Amino acid sequence: MQVIYKPRASGKTLEVIKMSAEKDYYIVCQNRKECSRIFHIAQELGLNMPFPVSFDEFLEKRYCGRHIKGFIIDNADMLLQYLAQAPIKCITLTKEVD
User: Fold this and answer.
1) How confident is the model at residue 8 (pLDDT cuts 50, 70, 90)?
2) 46-80 burial, b for 16+ CB within 10 Å, e for fewer?
3) Which pTM does this prediction carry?
4) Is the pLDDT of residue 98 over 70?
5) Quick check: 25 and 71 in contact, CB under 8 A?
6) Which H or E element spans position 14?
7) Cα–Cα distance for residue pair 64/29, rounded to 1 Å
8) DSSP class of 42
């Protein structure tokens, strides 16, 4: 699993749009409005990518899993906070061994 860790407004979403178009992965983002915004950016750049999935759709598995090669979670911190009733103060990630 690749982790993109950069400040706000530093090009993370643009990076995942390009990855989605290249690998045919679905981007998971906050809501349908953000899904549309991301998809329109890709179109403006001339990139062909799957239409993104909202947090709700992702959590409720409202997508066709048979054809999905992978997911890219845009703003994973927001997804984790979306799941919690109190602020999340720390997370750990398991590093994959090469």
Assistant:
1) confident
2) eeebbebbbbebbeeeebeeeeeeeebbbbeeebe
3) 0.88
4) no
5) yes
6) helix 12-23
7) 17
8) H
Rounded CA separation 69/20 (Å): 10
Both tokens of residue 4? 């993109």
CA distance 94 to 79: 18
Tokens matching residue 59 = 């959590």
CA-angle at 4, arms to 31 and 71, nearest 5°: 50
Alpha carbons 90 and 67: distance in angstroms, whole number:
33
User: Residue 26 and residue 23: Cα distance in Å, rounded?
Assistant: 9
How far apart are alpha carbons 56 and 23 in whole angstroms?
A: 23
| Structural Rg of the chain based on CA atoms | 14
* Residue labelled with tokens 């062909």: 48
- CA separation for the pair 85, 61 (Å, rounded): 21
Query: What pLDDT, in 10s, does the model give residues 34-87?
Result: 999 999 999 999 999 999 999 999 999 888 777 889 999 999 999 999 999 899
